[in-house]
């Protein structure tokens, strides 16, 4: 029995698929703000009887002053350890008893507390979050316990991973003095010398309603949510907020490079370009064009990096590309790759990666290749929109970057309408050697 060949995808089929995805209308994103400054967003979605509830405080590692790294991470831990209504250790336990799960994450620009639970339990989740905002215990003994917990986490996730240590050194060079270049887990000395008073002051300064965004995605409606939010959060007073520094690359752009040695036989390379985020770009089209360039270069088996450098030339065994577009300041577009030692040194791998980027900058970009990249990007976005927690994360992170989350629903049409000319112009402007930092990691005696 013979099988039929897989039909090729023509331009019309791609355009039809793009039109279909772009036409998908998300449920309305609603917004209101309490008198105390708490900003609240709701994406009503009744596909399942659950809600994702996320409280985003607009303070993270990029706000920490020198000598005080780990403040945000430590406070994130402590908010689970007691408030006026819950004793230590009960936050996650109560949420679990309600049929949900709780978590928290420290980001560069924010600290997010998230709960996923049945929709009819939403008022209790809001009560717990409001109580933690207004009356976290921040017990001295628990403070010391959580310092040890973070030290253990640091040893497990960071000190045992030379990959993350090398990436931190690479980003420190690439960010050129920006707070975004601080180590992922901060500095061990800062953590060991942390004072309880510093954490308490951090909480009182930043954990106020006018520095927070509450996001709810799921099976509830705006009138009910407004009543519940007002019942639990309205009495919490707003607070005076310190001025936040503007994080922009300054000075003359120039190429930077370094070589790190590692006892591991696995050699690697990182390349980063200094680029604007969606918050710092002069035009929203720049950000979306950079996201499309990621699809063209490094996302999926059909991307240029994978198809040419991993599959065909076999210079690399692995490659990934990332772009932190939801920063409040200038950011990085980073390519990380593992080398095939039999065929390429880290320096040769870096050159091969650059050549692919330079080709995209200098040669006409096929229209069909760009349209296929648009389709892949929009398909992933549509898939993520089916998950309540990912929708809420996108809204919260957008707000924490200082952007209007209402712009999220315009993104599909902006991507669809980007032209070959615009995408190539952005590549020429931002993916150039003056903006490039290269770190080669080669076998040798570790420093």
Strand order of the largest sheet: 1-2-6-3-5-4
The outline comes out as globular
Q: In CATH, what is the homologous superfamily of the largest domain?
A: Metalloenzyme, LuxS/M16 peptidase-like
The major pleated sheet works out as:
6 strands, mixed
Mean pLDDT score: 93
State the CATH topology of the largest domain.
Answer: Cytochrome Bc1 Complex, Chain A, domain 1
Instruction: Kindly estimate the percentage of residues that lie in beta strands according to DSSP.
Output: 15-25%
Number of helices: 16
Unreliable stretches, pLDDT < 50, 5 or more residues? none
Describe it.
The strands form 2 sheets. This protein has a 6-stranded mixed β-sheet with strand order 1-2-6-3-5-4, sandwiched between helices. A 5-stranded mixed β-sheet has the order 7-11-8-10-9, sandwiched between helices. The protein starts with 10 loop residues before the first helix and ends with a strand. The model has no long low-confidence stretch (mean pLDDT 93). The protein is an alpha+beta fold. α10 packs across α13 (367-384) and α10 packs across α16. It contains 16 helices and 11 strands.
């Amino acid at each position: 029995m013979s099988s039929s060949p897989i039909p090729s995808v023509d331009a019309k089929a791609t355009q039809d698929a793009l039109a279909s995805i772009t036409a998908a209308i998300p449920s309305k994103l609603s917004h209101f703000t309490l008198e105390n400054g708490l900003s609240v967003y709701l994406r009503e979605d009744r596909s399942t009887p659950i809600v994702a509830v996320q409280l985003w405080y607009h303070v993270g590692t990029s706000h920490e002053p020198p000598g005080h790294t780990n403040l945000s991470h430590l406070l994130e831990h402590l908010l689970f350890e007691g408030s006026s209504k819950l004793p230590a250790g009960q936050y996650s336990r109560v949420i679990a008893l309600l049929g949900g799960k709780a978590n928290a994450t420290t980001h560069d620009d924010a600290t997010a507390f998230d709960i996923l639970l049945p929709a009819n339990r939403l008022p209790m989740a809001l009560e717990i979050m409001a109580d933690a905002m207004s009356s976290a215990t921040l017990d001295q003994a628990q403070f010391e316990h959580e310092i040890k917990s973070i030290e253990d986490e640091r040893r497990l996730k960071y000190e045992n991973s030379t990959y993350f240590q090398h990436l931190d050194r690479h980003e420190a060079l690439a960010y050129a003095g920006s707070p975004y270049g601080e180590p992922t887990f901060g500095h061990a000395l800062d953590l060991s010398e942390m004072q309880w008073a510093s954490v308490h002051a951090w909480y009182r300064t930043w954990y106020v309603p006018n520095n927070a965004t509450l996001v709810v995605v799921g099976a509830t409606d705006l009138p009910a949510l407004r009543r519940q939010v007002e019942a639990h959060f309205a009495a919490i007073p707003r607070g005076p907020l310190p001025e936040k520094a503007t994080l922009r690359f300054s000075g003359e752009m120039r190429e930077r490079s370094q070589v790190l040695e590692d006892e591991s036989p696995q050699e690697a390379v990182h390349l980063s370009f200094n680029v604007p985020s969606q918050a710092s770009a002069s035009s929203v089209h720049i950000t979306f064009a950079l996201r499309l360039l990621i699809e063209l270069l490094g996302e999926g088996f059909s991307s240029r990096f994978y198809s040419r450098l991993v599959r065909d030339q076999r210079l690399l065994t692995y490659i990934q590309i990332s772009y932190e577009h939801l920063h409040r300041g200038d950011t990085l577009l980073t390519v990380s790759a593992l080398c095939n030692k039999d065929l390429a040194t880290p320096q040769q791998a870096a050159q091969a990666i650059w050549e692919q980027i330079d080709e995209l900058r200098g040669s006409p970009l096929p229209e069909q290749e760009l349209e296929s990249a648009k389709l892949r990007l929009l398909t992933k976005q549509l898939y993520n929109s089916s998950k309540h927690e990912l929708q809420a994360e996108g809204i919260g992170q957008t707000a924490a970057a200082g952007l209007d989350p209402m712009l999220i629903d315009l993104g599909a049409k902006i991507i669809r309408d980007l032209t070959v000319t615009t995408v190539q112009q952005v590549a020429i402007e931002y993916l150039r050697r003056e903006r490039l930092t290269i770190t080669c990691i080669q076998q040798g005696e570790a420093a």
